[in-house]
Design brief:
alpha/beta, 8 helices, 10 strands, elongated, ATP-binding, Nucleotide-binding universal stress UspA family protein, about 20% strand, about 40% helix, 2 domains, Rossmann fold, 10-stranded mixed β-sheet, ATP binding
Length: about 290
Amino acid sequence: MTRVLVGYLPDERGDDALALAALVARQGRTPLTVANIYPPGWPTPGPGRVDAEWLGYVKQQARAALDQAAARLGDTTPADAVHYVVHPNRGSGRGLIQVAEKEAARLVVIGSAPRGRPGRIAVGSTADQLLHASPVPVLLAPRGYAAAPPEAFTRLTVAYRPHRGARLEVAAAGRIADWLGVPVRLLTLLLRPPGPAGGPVVADLMRRQREQAARDLAEAAERAAARAGVSAEVAEGVGVDGALRHCDWSPGEILACMSSAEGPLRRVFLGSVSGKIVRVAACPVLVLPGAGPR
């Protein structure tokens, strides 16, 4: 049985990730695994008693973190639908990848790094490891998400760009949307150069890009027409932030973006545009693994 995996720390980012993962698990009717990654002992041991005491301490702290997670979940998630795991690894992201493989996780959920702006996502070391190696999709919670989570997810918006693997990635996003019971919006970001309008040459270039984007989206939407509730939209603005501001966003939105074409197949690999989307989006962001030939 597949599961939703959340990496939990006893702080704000852990609570944000837990609130998001619990909503995914409830809406997708999928069991939840809550994991805390703790540092293992050193390969070259020092005095045995000191090493044993230190390892016992960090394990105790990890279990205390999971006790806090259980208290945060309370009655919102049935106790028999939650599995708690402590796992050793010096890299928390790498440790979550190992747990994801062991638990047959469908996706991994984490929170923003502490330096993130309220309502936005900052990529820290855990996210960086996951966003360059995870074999399953990674879902990131904006900072402060736990303070006012939506009652339900309402739509999955896919930041679409045409490439050889796009069809498989859109299909993967569609399966997640079916799992959560939400419609899909295919969204292409059309980025205008900064500064003045640029005269007729720039205007003609933008017109041709707009027309091409509309054709690409129409083809992608037609291929995805086998499932209900697929819409397509072009958002135009100066930079990724400006383009995203020209879209409507519901409280229950998830924004999905694709892995870089330079990354390994069937692994998440965050590219430059997807990285900008993660950092400026005002909703949870789902990063899909690369799929198929590029």
